[in-house]
Amino acid sequence: DVKVTQSSRYLVKRTGEKVFLECVQDMDHENMFWYRQDPGLGLRLIYFSYDVKMKEKGDIPEGYSVSREKKERFSLILESASTNQTSMYLCASRPPGLPLRDFGPGTRLLVL
Amino acid sequence: AQTVTQSQPEMSVQEAETVTLSCTYDTSESNYYLFWYKQPPSRQMILVIRQEAYKQQNATENRFSVNFQKAAKSFSLKISDSQLGDTAMYFCAFTRTYKYIFGTGTRLKVLA
């Protein structure tokens, strides 16, 4: 089974801090995703990476950046955290052309 | 732009009963894929069932089945013989490419 892990289950940060959310998958998947999940809004795509060093903006990229230096690792960066970035962040991965089925356990981020 | 609508924020069902969760979507495309995902309190997202738009036959996975009405752009999920472990948030999703559009979710509670 593919395993997608995220560096933290819960994280508390201060406004203005630089925040790194790490995601690692162990099955050599080319595609990796970062979603944000908010009540009443469902999951919204922040960034997508289709291969190492390749990325595309999703629907809500503002305030976020990403890094994919190695195939197994996809990092989401909040350059200067703000309270409106308090949310649940989900990472996912898949081989190209196959359904999205492998999600991480999520990181619940609170920005104070 | 494609949209996915889940009009039932919360539902409940008695154990062993059948429940149907609704999902409608909007697209001008003819080829696409639809999915139902389950997110239990553990937050681990699980792919429940998928449907290819070009297939007329409704998908079935054990106690889970869909009613896919392409002309009406409707994709409902039926859970038969509900179990306590079915208690979760359920998301409907649409995709044509790498981008998945998720609905806002339906919180289902199975009552003992």
Helical residue percent band of chain B: under 10%
- The count of DSSP E runs of length 2 or more, i.e. the number of strands of chain B, is 12
Query: What is the rounded distance between the termini of chain A?
Result: 37 Å
Classify the oligomer: heterodimer
Determine Rg of chain B (CA atoms, Å): 13 Å
Q: Considering DSSP H and I runs of 4 or more, what fraction of the residues of chain A is helical?
A: under 10%
Order of helices and strands of chain A: EEEEEEEEEEE
Largest interface: A-B, 21 and 22 residues
Number of helices of chain A: 0
Mean pLDDT over all positions of chain B? 95
The description of the largest β-sheet of chain A is: 7 strands, mixed
Task: Note the beta-strand portion of chain B.
Answer: over 45%
Structure commentary:
The complex is a heterodimer of chains A (112) and B (112). With 112 residues, chain A is an all-beta fold. Chain A has strands at residues 4-6, 10-13, 19-25, 31-38, 42-51, 54-57, 64-70, 73-78, 87-94, 102-103, 107-111. Chain A contains no helices and eleven strands. In chain A, strands 2, 4, 5, 6, 9, 10 and 11 form a seven-stranded mixed β-sheet that branches. Chain A has a four-stranded antiparallel β-sheet with strand order 1-3-8-7, with no helix packed on it. Chain A is globular and about 40 Å long. Chain B has 112 residues and is an all-beta fold. Chain B is globular. Chain A binds chain B through residues 31, 35, 40-45, 48, 50, 58, 88, 90, 92, 96, 99-101, 103, 105-106, and chain B through 4, 6, 9, 33, 35, 42-47, 50, 91, 93, 95, 98-100, 102-105.
